[in-house]
Write a structure and sequence with these properties.
The complex is a heterodimer of chains A (about 200) and B (about 400). Chain A is of the alpha/beta class and about 200 residues long. Helices cover about 20% and strands about 20% of the residues of chain A. Chain B has about 400 residues and is α+β, with helices and mostly antiparallel strands. Chain B is globular and about 75 Å long. Classes of the chains: A alpha/beta (about 200), B alpha+beta (about 400).
């Protein structure tokens, strides 16, 4: 196992080459293929067309999931971004499409500004996207234009706020602060005699 | 008799249907067939369902937010609670995603132990389906057979990990030294309890026997067939459109199994067949799962002979900081594709964790599949999708 790349049958170079070709044909650009995770940047106004072309022409028909990321300099809870000074505050909408013949798949990423947070709905292309868009809508406050039923999915109807935004506090942490490093457990030792049980 | 007026009247008499006002039928949130707390609001016209609106979120626990304030080691305790019927399998994709980002290669022995326990989780999950689905159709007997063997499989998981439902057994770089194995002295611990492999082989024989029992009780049963054959047909392209995966996808003729394509566990070194059926109806979804139990037994028996000796745990820093990066790793869980999109900004906790849970997508087809079906088929169709509400609501 350690001799071959464990994540995919193809090598990292093969994957990068495949992603470059895919992005070029779709008129998009590759962000990264690190960690066997292909990310392709798509302009917001070409979102639906690009995804439809990926389904029809590129053999990626399987709608896996859609979600979003809130890139913020400051976070109410948790650890912030690595370089907050250089960060451009924005939302990213991610959609993963994949093949049902081999391991290939790609994440399509559209950046949208925080003060104008909308994107076109892909429900006309994948009916299964409705719930995913509703979740991203309530969690991040992004408007999916054209989604036929953009109501709360998980949250109660009267719920206010968008919990997965980085500015949204976590009530349990307000009530009781996290104890911190004392909670980090020791990793078991590696050196010494084998831990194997001969009777197993 | 041939006057236009009379013609008109007779046509009217023939074409008028009995108009019944639509009625709203509320099912759940507390209902035995919902596997948790799911509410369906159906608009029915007589016995015909016109449309149905699933109301979910009763079990929403906000894991994606909770993960942002926890270290990677703490998150494994959360994620095995997503699909609690197969708790062990949920940990795999997450821990492999963290290992990928951190550049840590787990030890070979740990990988094989993970594989065996994953397959045991698959068997126990499918045995729950083998007990609950016939029960929902009115057959009580299979439940006793299936749950008896499932309990023995859970005993094995509990023996190795210490947890029956929530193992929390995976560590970055390997697995935890097992509970109850060997000496209790400090610093000396054994990985698997004494007799684990012998016990597993015995349990696998029993699982195969119970598969035959279920075959006899259910597979050829006329009543079960009348309720399921040709009911709730999902064509392959619809399954793909709604992101259905696992047995639900394979029952629709799409023979896609991640275990044959992405080797986050050493599935490339064991032989097994992918169970596929063509019909896409409730019966096929049952048949595929029954076949998968037998395939999992095959995998476990091969894996027992292949588990190498060696350490359980790779060398990992005491405080794990994961380098900046984004990785998506998915695993073939008992219910289908289960993935984690992990974004690390270089700290001890993820910046964002997106959980692609299987039942969420599998259930999202419900409004489409239940449209224009009969009310008595509702439970048969819902049960055949084999969802768990913890996996839907996260």
């Amino acid at each position: 196992m350690p001799d071959s790349p464990p994540e995919r049958a193809t090598t990292a170079d093969d994957l990068a080459e495949w992603a470059d070709g895919l992005a070029e044909r779709l008129g998009a650009s590759v962000i990264s293929t690190e960690f066997a995770t292909v990310r392709i940047a798509v302009a917001r106004d070409r979102w639906v067309d690009t995804l439809r072309a990926a389904r029809d022409d590129e053999g990626l028909p399987f709608f896996s999931w859609l979600s979003a990321i809130d890139w913020a300099k400051e976070t109410a809870v948790g650890e912030g971004p690595a370089e907050p000074e250089d960060l451009v505050e924005r939302y990213e909408v991610l959609c993963r499409l994949s093949s049902v013949r081999d391991a290939s798949g790609a994440h399509f990423v559209a950046e949208i500004p925080k003060d104008d947070a909308w994107i076109d709905s892909i429900v006309p292309v994948w009916g299964g996207a409705e719930w995913h868009e509703r979740e991203a809508h309530e969690m991040f406050g992004i408007d999916f234009r054209g989604n036929p039923n953009l109501t709360h999915l998980y949250l109660p109807d009267a719920f206010e706020g968008h919990p997965l935004r980085k500015s949204y506090p976590l009530l349990s942490r307000e009530v009781k602060p996290w104890p911190g490093t004392v909670d980090v457990e020791d990793m078991p030792a590696v050196e010494g005699p084998s831990t194997e049980n001969p009777e197993a | 008799m041939t006057s236009p007026e009379l013609m008109h009247r007779s046509e009217v008499a023939v074409s008028v249907e009995l108009q019944t006002p639509d009625m709203t039928l509320n099912i759940g949130p507390q209902h035995p067939s919902t596997h948790g707390v799911l509410r369906l609001v159906a608009r029915v016209d007589g016995e015909r369902i016109r449309d149905v609106e699933p109301v979910i979120g009763y079990m929403h626990r906000g894991y994606e937010k909770l993960a942002e304030v926890r270290t990677y080691a703490q998150i494994t305790a959360l994620v095995n609670r997503i699909d609690w019927v197969a708790g062990f399998a949920n940990e795999i994709a997450f821990i492999r995603a963290v290992e990928t980002l951190a550049g840590i290669e787990p030890t070979e022995r740990a990988q094989w132990i993970r594989l065996i326990l994953s397959e045991l989780a698959r068997i126990s999950s499918h045995l729950v389906f083998m007990s609950s689905y016939p029960l929902e159709l009115g057959a009580t007997t299979p439940l006793f057979h299936a749950l008896r063997e499932r309990e023995r499989v859970l005993d094995l998981i509990e023996g190795a990990t210490g947890g029956r439902f929530h193992p929390n057994f995976n560590r970055v770089g390997g697995v935890k030294p097992a509970a109850g194995g060997g000496s209790t002295q400090k610093k000396v611990s054994s990985d698997l309890p004494a007799g684990f492999f012998a016990g597993t082989k015995l349990a696998m024989d029993n699982v195969l026997a119970v598969c035959d029992d279920i075959d006899n009780l259910v597979t050829g049963n006329e009543l079960i067939k009348a309720r399921t054959v040709g009911v709730g047909v999902i064509p392959g392209d619809k399954a793909i459109e709604y992101g259905l995966s696992g047995p639900n996808l394979r029952a629709s003729g799409v023979g896609f199994d991640l275990r044959k394509h992405e080797f986050i566990l050493p599935y490339d070194e064991v032989e097994f067949d992918v169970a596929v059926a063509e019909g896409g109806d409730c019966y096929d979804r049952y048949v595929v799962r029954l076949d998968e139990i037998r395939q999992s037994v095959r995998i476990v028996l091969q894996a027992i002979d292949k588990v190498p000796s060696g350490p359980l745990q790779a060398k990992v820093p005491r405080i794990l900081k994961v380098p900046q990066g984004q990785a998506y790793v998915r695993n073939e869980n008992p219910k289908g594709e289960f993935g984690y999109y992990v974004i690390s900004e270089g700290g001890r906790m993820p910046y964002r964790l997106k959980i692609r849970s299987t039942s969420f997508s599998n259930l999202s087809i419900l409004p489409w599949i239940l449209k224009d079906q009969l009310v008595p088929d509702l439970v048969a169709i819902m049960g055949s999708l084999d969802f768990v509400l913890g996996d839907v609501d996260r």
